[in-house]
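comment on this one:
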Amino acid sequence: MIGDISVKTNLYLVSGYTDMRRSIDGLCATIQNMLHTEPDSMSVYLFCGKRCDRIKILIKEPDGMCLLYKRLDCSIQGRFRWPRNRDEVKPITWKQFDWLMSGLEVEQPKALKMDV
């Protein structure tokens, strides 16, 4: 299925600001520069721009690269809570991804720690 991120095991959040005009090649170059590796087929890479109202998700599929784009509705005036530590790529869990997509901070110090 095109753009199925549910089968991926690694999620990487590229903190700081990303130029949202970048396409697949530009985002792949960012991954290569920051992680010193090629994008792999078991990973999801998340990018956010300055306005924090849109996210790009880059994934590698068996036959090529796929770029997913999410823009929050203008009428909601919502923002993603994106960490701004420059030049940092941090691995996140699926729970943290869910928090991020729900408009929460990636780090939730008061969240209950559950063994899965």
